[in-house]
Design a protein that fits this description.
Helices cover about 25% and strands about 30% of the residues. The protein is an alpha+beta fold. This is Holliday junction resolvase RecU.
Amino acid sequence: MTIKHPKGIQSNDSVNEPDGINYARRGMTFEKLINESNQYYLAKNIAVIHKKPTPIQVVTVDYPKRSAVKITEAYYKEASTTDYNGVYKGYYIDFEAKATKLKTRFPLNNLQEHQIDHMISCQKQGGIVFLLIYFSTLKECYLMPFSDIKAFWCDNASGQKSIPYTYIKKNCYAVPFKLRPRVDYLAAVNHLMIQLKGVDQ
């Protein structure tokens, strides 16, 4: 099926296998790893977090069999906000997940203005908002708090077009890869929640 993306929607890069973990399905995307982690969190009653569905407009439909319908062409009706939201320890969680093959930086154009606006709105309501960044070549994942995102996007007086990897490694929370959950980002969220307790959002 062909799905056409409007301006502002990008697909995630494929994720390589982190060292020491043998994934049976090759080419698993970062998104799929997060989805599996969310399924684990849900099954263990740890959190309820889901990927947000994006409405599509169906253009072409085929009927290969009388009992089957196949969508062969569609496009997204509107640009999405962020990838995931849900509830953890009584807090609203909202985040975007991005993967990059670059080793030295994360390009800011991977984010869109409407996504930043959505994050600002969630943060103003007391939600825990962040960005998950996966450096696929380095096989490293980090949680970047909204305060850092805002500093580079909204308060960017120098006009930087990317966030240096060195800044991310030093200032953001490392997210461990495990067998279960695959991407244990809630371990990093726990640290972020401790930080936010003493900060007026």
